[in-house]
C-alpha cells in the first residue's frame, strides 16, 4: 500500500468509522496530499480511480472508497458547466475545500428519475422557490454543494422534459440537510434534504431550463461504470482477504482449504471474477476513447454487483461464528456490498433496460 495513504488513513480510520464520515480537515488533506479528488477528470482518470480504489479497499471498509467515488461522479457533472458559480464550486472541490453531492432520489422517486416531484417554481423576479424533499443522498450530510434535480414545469406532458438542474450551497436559507442511519458503508454518510420555502437566485440554474433530465442522463453511464469498477476491485480484495482464513483455519485436523468443496467454491468465484474483471478493464479503455456502449456498461454494472453480493454470502460461511462478530470485517461485508446493486439505478431497472435493448435490436 502507498505509505502516504497509509499515514493519512490509519491514525484516523477508527474515528471515521465511528463518526460515519471523514472530517472536513482530513478530506482536505486527502485532496492536497494524494491528488485523488478530481482524478476521474484527467486523461485515463478511470484507470487511476481503479488503482486508488484498490488501495483504499485494503482498509476493509467499502464506505471509505464509496465516499470518494460518489464525489467524483457529482464532480464530473459539475465540471460540464461553465457558469461562475459552477466554476467556483469546482475549484473549491478540487482543492479539497468542499464536497459535492448529487441529489436525485426522493421518497417516491429513485431509479425512475422522470418521476421526481420536488418543485422549483419560477418567480416573477426570475428566482426559484423550491418545496419538497430529497432522500438517500450519498455524502448528503457532509456536502457543501448540492446538484439538485427539480421539476420546473409540472404541466409538461412528457414528465422528463420539465426537470431542471440547480447548484445550491449548504447554507442556503430553507435548505435543511439531515442524516439517515445505515446498516453498512459506515464512512459514506447518507441523508436527505428538506426544502422549505427555499428561494434561490436565477444563477443557481445550471444550463438550460427544463434540460435537467438530459444532463443527468449524460452522467449515468459514467456512474454505472464507476460502480462496476468499485465492485470488481472490492471483489478482488474480498477474495484475497479470505485466502488467509481458508489456509489457517483448522477443522478435523486439516485446513479449510484442504476440503475439496471449499477449493471448488474458491475456484468458481475466482473464475467468475477474472472474466468480469477483464471485461471491466476493456470497458474502461472503451470509455476513455469515447466508444463504450451503454448496454455493455449496464451489463457490467449488473454482473459485477451481483457477483460481489454472491461472493460476500458464499465466503462469509467459511468464517463460521467469527463472521457473525460485530467488529469483524466479514460480518459487515454483506451490508457493505448491497448498496452497489441499488446505486446508479437498481439492478432490476438495469435488467429491464438490457432486455429492452436486446429486443429492440433483435
General description of the model:
It is a single chain. This protein has 362 residues and is α+β, with helices and mostly antiparallel strands. The chain folds into three domains: 3-94, no CATH class; 100-210, Butyryl-CoA Dehydrogenase, subunit A, domain 2 (Beta Barrel); 215-360, Butyryl-CoA Dehydrogenase, subunit A, domain 3 (Up-down Bundle). 49% of the residues lie in helices and 15% in strands. The chain is built from eleven helices and ten strands. The chain has helices at 3-9, 13-19, 24-34, 45-56, 62-78, 84-94, 212-248, 260-288, 294-316, 329-338, 347-360; strands spanning 100-103, 119-122, 128-138, 145-151, 163-169, 175-179, 190-200, 205-206, 250-251, 254-255. The strands form three sheets. A four-stranded mixed β-sheet has the order 1-4-5-8. Strands 2-3-7-6 form a four-stranded antiparallel β-sheet, with no helix packed on it. The longest helix has 37 residues, at 212-248. The protein is globular. The mean pLDDT is 91.
